[in-house]
Request: fold
Amino acid sequence: AILHLPLSLRPSAPPYLRPPLTLLRVDVVTRAMPSGNLEVNVLNAIRLKDTQTFGKQDPYCVVQCGHTHFRTKTCTDGGTTPKFNERFHFVVGEGDTELSVVIWNSNTMSSDNCIGKCALPLAGVFARGYDDARCHVLDMKGRGAGELNIVVTFAATGAMQQQPSFNQPMMMQQQPSFSQPTGYMAQPVYQQP
Reply:
């Protein structure tokens, strides 16, 4: 099918024929975000970028949702295919829209190296109550650095909280920092038997 646009809307139209940007309006519709309990099971990673010069790398993950974060145990000699299989529980509110994971290589003689990061939007988890996700891990330069398998379940508590629905400006969320993690020694609330 051929799409016929009026001359004023064509990209090749001269600027004096294009409508001014102030006439273009985009309505942003947001959905009510539930609050409840989020269970995150960090299973394993595959094809991780190898940041270790000698021997096998020792990966661990820092999982964050909102202002709460947990650290998995270090998978000693996990290399590029570490197995974590650890569960964490988060209490989520209306502002929590994404789960972020940063994967680090533990070093004893120097500071830990960041292998990469990934993010899982929670909208699908809120809608279905469950997500079995394979997240693409990106290194600090935005290149592929492997995949991380995560299982996330959600159970809503109480009534849904309503957010404003029209004409609200979109805000960019701050990305997690790649600085050296300090104080991430929190143990998981629940460990798998």
Summary: The CA atoms of residues 28 and 171 lie 11 Å apart.
